[in-house]
Amino acid sequence: MVIISKTSGTSETRRSADAFAMSGESGRALANVAAAWLTAAAECQREMIGFVSIRLAKDGETVREMAGCKSPADATAIQSRWIEETLRDYSSEVTKLMTICTKAVNDKSPRPNT
């Protein structure tokens, strides 16, 4: 047995869109927050793409250095340096991303009327 819905997907979509349509101050506030969120997300994405590019280059260089090692001591020194540098880089990147997000929140947060 086939059951046919009495409502169309289009009308459901329209009703959903109407629920989000706001006028006046709250509509503008929502638009501002959405714009700030999209801007911060795009900035975070650019930052992460740049970070990954730099890390891949550094990791590739480390692999080349490891391939040329003559002794286990050399390999251990390279690995230790790589771990320290990687931890520093990731820590710095998280700080940058948190700064971007914090700035976005602080710039667009509604301020109480004083």
Structure commentary:
- With 114 residues, the protein is mainly α.
- It has a domain at 28-104.
- 82% of the residues lie in helices and 0% in strands.
- It is built from three helices and no strands.
- The protein has helices spanning 9-20, 24-67, 72-108.
- The chain is rod-shaped, with a radius of gyration of 25 Å.
- It starts with 8 loop residues before the first helix and ends in a 6-residue tail after the last helix.
- 1% of the residues are buried.
- The model has no long low-confidence stretch (mean pLDDT 83).
The largest pleated sheet is described as: none
Q: H/E element string?
A: HHH
The secondary-structure class comes to: mainly alpha
The level of helicity is over 70%
Helix tally equals 3
What is this entry, summarized?
The protein is an all-alpha fold and 114 residues long. It has 3 helices and no strands.
SSE blueprint and pairings:
Elements: H1 9-20, H2 24-67, H3 72-108
